[in-house]
Amino acid sequence: MWISYALADSKGETLRPSILIDRLKRLFPRLNFSSDLLADEQEHLEMVSTPKAAYKYMTAHMRNAADGKEDSLLWWLVYDWYKRHPDEEWAHRIGMLTEGLFHQNQEPSLGREKAVALYSLPVKASVSRLEQYVKCPFAHFVRYGLRPAERKEYTVAAPDLGELFHLSIEKFTARIAVQGLDWRELKDHECESMLDDVMDEILPEYNHGILQSTHRYQYLSKRLKRIGKRAVWLLTDHIRRSKFNPVGHEISFGLKGTYPPIEIGLADGEKMLLEGRIDRCDIYERENDLFINVIDYKSGAESFDLSDAWFGLKLQLLVYLEAMLEQEQRRIDGKARPGGIFYFRIDDPLINTKESVGEAIEKEIRKKLKLKGLVLKDVNLIRSMDNKISGYSEVLPVGVSDKNDSIYANSSVLEEEDFIWLIKHIKEFIRELGAEMLNGNINISPTKKGDETACRYCPYDGICQFDLQLENNRYRLIPSLKTEEVIERIRLRREEN
Fold first, then answer.
1. C-alpha torsion sign, points 374, 378, 382, 385
2. Domain locations in the chain?
């Protein structure tokens, strides 16, 4: 009888043998134990028999040799036999083995000349494009350099839902502007009625009427209406609580946008022109100064992490804020100052409560859909964003004490100087990305933060063939810094400058 046990799992991590192994050792102290990892020369010789049987053992041992591990020289003799064998089948197999053992998927740099020709100057880039380059230069090269087109399917996916919500809110706000209505005077039933009309206009025409094609999609249409109503109710509720006024929705900046693009100077006098679209911008005037909030609508769960912003994984909100600060500063005599950057989640959450009172349910919904982001550390400004704040805000990711007006320690806030220097860091970071992009770096080096990797939803894994067992295939590990650590880095950068 032979008893065996695994030394490692599929990830290569060590496994402990069953307690039965220890019991057997104690019961039968003269038992012989051996491992195929520590096989002696005699055991190697026993593996060499017929050409077909020996080949599978030979491939495993050649893998050890390719990895630089010590192994029996016997297998080089076996390899030589196959190499010299006149049969074409073995020559073909050996060729495939050699190709597999020394396969490399890393691509050399394009070089500056090819990169400039491929991306053209000045480089026109969106924020999402820069975030893609941070996550993996090779995925950026495939998407924005080679530009392959995926086969279109007649279906509704998550990105389509996000687009529908953006479109419905855009048309909803446009109707308010056209009719000259005041957000704060709108009644809830008026919002619902207006959103119904907007959805009835959009849904039948979207994607060639797919949302009317089956009973499943018709049900989805009803659900989209319900979520849309929840979104505009919450949107209106936020504005009623705030002294900030919406000054624009779907504000574009770019060569053909509402505002000119953000210009980033690169090496040798070259430029990068950043283009994008801001879902919403709110402004509040206090004395001669102007405070700006930038809001981005998200149909999925999205949280703002200062650490992700520092390492370039989340650039969008800060870049959009910089665009608005730059434009408004040209227009006013006072100072354009950051107010906050937020993600507004569009959803219809499930509320688990024993209370059936409408106000209690609405309070829970506000908590579930609270804005995620970063606020300027200014108590008066925070109260201007939420005039009902008492303790933890139902709207903002902050809390304020009613006793002494102090801001809670775990609030997502930032001093103004830190805000400004974080934006400066982001601009410098983008400048470095642009230089690296034009130097032709297309390295296969996806990021990994915790359990999340850039490869998780990447559609190009069949092209890059990223594999940790291949040479030079490694994740770029992104540390998860605490807010205090990021602020410390911001202040250190400020001191250096």
1. negative
2. 19-101, 105-497
